[in-house]
Specification:
Blueprint: H1 21-40, H2 42-63, H3 65-91
Length: 92
């Protein structure tokens, strides 16, 4: 019992079975340009990494809300102390 569906080819891969040399060259160029775009698009890569990290933090906060509240309180205290120190240094 086999399913005769085409296997999806990644955007950065060249599909197998292209007999025409012109089509093969076009496929290789398209794959190379896609690979360059994936590597060179730093904002997109950063955005995807941030999305993954946010999902991890949300899952962690869902599993342990007390620890998440402690982290938020700690960050708020650190920001408050930093602002206080900067204002104090500026006022002197």
């Amino acid at each position: 019992m086999s399913i005769d569906r085409p296997v999806p080819v990644p955007k950065t891969a060249v599909p197998l079975g292209i007999a025409d040399p012109v089509e093969q060259a076009r496929a290789e160029l398209k794959a190379a340009l896609a690979a360059i775009e994936v590597k060179a698009n730093v904002p997109r890569r950063v955005s995807e990494a941030v999305d993954v990290r946010v999902a991890e933090v949300r899952e962690s906060a869902r599993r342990n809300p007390a620890a998440a509240a402690a982290v938020v309180a700690g960050v708020a205290a650190a920001v408050g102390l930093t602002v206080w120190a900067l204002v104090r240094a500026y006022a002197r």
